[in-house]
Amino acid sequence: MSNEQIKNLEEIFEARIARDEKIEPKDWMPEKYRKTHIRQMSQHAHSEIVGMLPEGNWITRAPSLRRKAALLAKVQDEAGHGLYLYSACETLGVSRDELYEQLHSGKAKYSSIFNYPTVTWADMGAVGWLVDGAAIINQVPLCNTSFGPYARAMVRVCKEESFHQRQGFEIMLKLCNGSQEQKDMAQDALNRWWWPSLMMLGPTDAESIHTEQSMKWKLKRKSNDDLRQQFIDQTVPQAELLGLTIPDPDLKWNDEKGVYDFGEINWDEFWQVVKGHGPCNKQRMKARVSAWENGEWVRDAAMAYADKKEARKLKEAI
Amino acid sequence: MSKNWPLWEIFVRSKNGLEHRHFGSLHASDAEMALENARDVYTRRSEGVSIWVVESTNITASNPEHNGELFEPAQDKVYRHPTFYDLPDEVKHM
Is the pLDDT of residue B2 over 80? Predict the structure, then answer.
């Protein structure tokens, strides 16, 4: 194809997106659109899968059968979300194995929040309330994104996600209405998860390199700073309801702007964790890689069994 | 390194009386496992009463580049629609 033709196709493509038309996998698309989508969707899928680890940590130690069943269902949902997103990603011609390889080799990233440890039961409350809360704010606009398979996967994800946040908040509420020790545990969890949750909404607009292009492709509908403000404004009253204190001395209602002002985020910490130096990066990757490697014989055996059954069926037919 | 699990397309009937609809895809070693996995991945909240699985390689899809010759001819055949025909208002039940 000549440059002229490609330019022409690109213009038609951009116009389709501007008209809010959906792009489906077999449609012509610029290479950069394809690559950006593979990057973002796979990063999203990896986050769901790695995100199972910090919570999986508490399944066997949940304080009651009710909590255990709910946590198990939540972690299972995350596996499901990872699978929806991996298969949406595969429609762009990348294989599942390549995607895993990118995760395991460290080439692909996942949400850095999952590199923090879950040290007490209250962390299950804080993760559901704050981390899933921030995730929902990020994900709801994606239900309208231009790439059909991604948008469809996100509709399913968002429908299922709201139970996650509610179960987290309920855990916090229960602890906050409990003994002083339980309340302290809830406060401690909030202290540790608050700032990483704010970071989860991504670097500031000034630092975010992909924002402009992603906005154009409707892969992003609001900027990171706007999403962060929305998260803070909706979460502060929830913390008040719990009787907990947000660990930010600069946090205060700005009557003029109608939003909360908040303190400086420690971006050095964020970049350290992104670069692999968070408290659990190595542990998380080791868990994923060993699950993949130790599962190889199971995958092979299932395939060998399927082949054998197929061969037997053919023989009987003859 | 042996063969990877093939990809399957999953169709779910959400309740009797409705058609099976495409829900997504997943990997499984054979049809039976695809059904079991589809149950766990796509119907965790009673979304279905029946599942079909089809190996993705068995699907033949039209090419969007040929959409013009495939679908455009229908656009100028307005006489296939009831509104094409002029009838007086007095005609009832038609």
Answer: no
